[in-house]
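for ur thesis appendix - protein-serine/threonine phosphatase. copy paste whatever u need, i formatted it the way the template wanted (i think)
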Amino acid sequence: MAERKGNRNGHDLVPLAALISREMKSEKMEKPSVRYGCAAQSKKGEDYFLMKTACQRVPGNPSSTFSVFAIFDGHNGNAAAIYTRENLLSHVLSAVPRGLGRDEWLQALPRALVAGFVKTDKEFQSRGETSGTTATFVIVDGWTVTVASVGDSRCILDAQGGAVSTLTVDHRLEENVEERERVTASGGEVGRLSIVGGAEIGPLRCWPGGLCLSRSIGDMDVGEFIVPVPYVKQVKLSNAGGRLIIASDGIWDALSSENAAKSCRGLPAELAARQVVKEALRTRGLKDDTTCIVVDIIPPDDSSTPSPPPKKQSKLRALLFRKRSRDSATKLSKKLSAVSIVEELFEEGSAMLAERLGNESTSCLFVCAICQVDLAPSEGISVHAGSIFSMSSKPWQGPFLCADCRNKKDAMEGKRPSGVKVV
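the 3d part is after this line
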């Protein structure tokens, strides 16, 4: 069966048998196993999570399986968190071109995540509800971890060897100077809550609306300079594996990244998640919804069965055995510290869609890069064009947006007043 190319949606259609054959050739058979657990304590009922381990890049091909884990911390109600949990994954996947091999698929993910986040925000705001949500969205495919986030729910990586790294950026106005500057440059005002007598209290907020975050999904009652464009980071673990801890700010307001990781080392994922929540509550009490997902990415040769009870042995043999084990652990530790545990593949946090959607020559003229709606030949507007009222040096270069998504882009970048559409 021959390949069909050049369909209106801009995606080459490839026979399923050919895709599976390609996957089997490129896929390393030694994939890690993924084990996970979740724990939560509710205060306001606005935290939601997603754990899905049976996703497939190529439908019907078990070797193309990947996993998705996410936390959505809602505010001003739970509608945005629920909507995002139910729709974000499908919006991200619909923005990935079809017919890609695994490596190409992973390379396409950062751009698809941006499109999926913006589309989810755009659709939710059209419902006229005023709630909002953070979103920390994690895709685990083999040894590769891709994280996209808006808001202050955080994902950390505890790699083998004890190194703890953060895979997200907190979009809190209080701590994030770059985001404060972006919001004010786009037309927002940043300040603390004023009370009677002129005194200012609380964290820095963006006005109108009074939101403490500079990025979220939803929040239609604040300025559109509060954007849904995520920070994205993609890393590849060594074959030693590692542990991800994904949690809402109920955890991170109580524990540092290092303390959260230390509190649950040596425990299986389910117990580890419970322990992190327990430690956060012990430190701070239940002041907010508190949700934690722990994901272990485990080398295939690690045994999942408990070690058998030790046999009786002489004291001398026991001493020699302990000495040998300690020497082996020391050698392993030195070996791990001598190699790069985590390889960074991609990192980008800009709020500008022109930078996040790229300028690939393969960008389709006939599909909006955000909402995937079909475009007539004369409808597409280049994401690289300046203001709608100005000329661009590259108005022909894709990706292209429909008029509605172009209005959204202009509002997020402060190129038109929030809520004012250009017809």
